[in-house]
Amino acid sequence: MSTFKSFFGAGERAQEIAPFLSLVLVLVTLFGVLFCKMELRRVGYSVLKLTREERKMRDLERQQSIMLAKITRPDRLQSVADARLNLKRAESGQIIQMTERGIALRE
């Protein structure tokens, strides 16, 4: 405390500097509040952007699942198997179900 008194001249210098320090304190507080508001707005825009991107991704996923359902429907698979792969429906006796002990059922 003695160095404080000797540096500021036993209180006179402190009284001269007090208004300046209080003004600096008010300005720093105002800039801090301004910075916090700007940061909040920036984060809000980032959240909005990510929300829109998430919505687009969900829509894309929904469209792809619909397309997958269309592509894998049984009648389409049958037509592709007949036309492109020359596959025929299995006839009676062609399917043999196997188990650990051997043939389970012959159709």
Layout of SSEs?
Blueprint: H1 2-8, H2 12-71, H3 74-83, E1 96-99, E2 102-106
List keywords for this structure.
single chain, mainly alpha, 107 residues
Largest sheet: 2 strands, antiparallel
Low-pLDDT sequence parts? none
The number of helical elements comes to 3
Helix/strand-derived category reads mainly alpha
Share of residues in helices: over 70%
Percentage of residues in strands: 5-15%
Ends apart, CA distance between termini:
103 Å
Whole-angstrom Rg: 40 Å
Mean pLDDT: 84
| Order of helical and strand elements | HHHEE
- What kind of assembly state do the chains in view correspond to? single chain
Count of strand segments: 2
| Strand arrangement across the biggest beta sheet | 1-2
Globular, elongated, flat, extended or rod-shaped: what is the shape? rod-shaped
Walk me through the structure:
By secondary structure, this protein is mostly helical. The chain is 72% helix and 8% strand. It has helices at 2-8, 12-71, 74-83, and strands at 96-99, 102-106. The chain has a two-stranded antiparallel sheet with strand order 1-2. It is rod-shaped, with a radius of gyration of 40 Å.
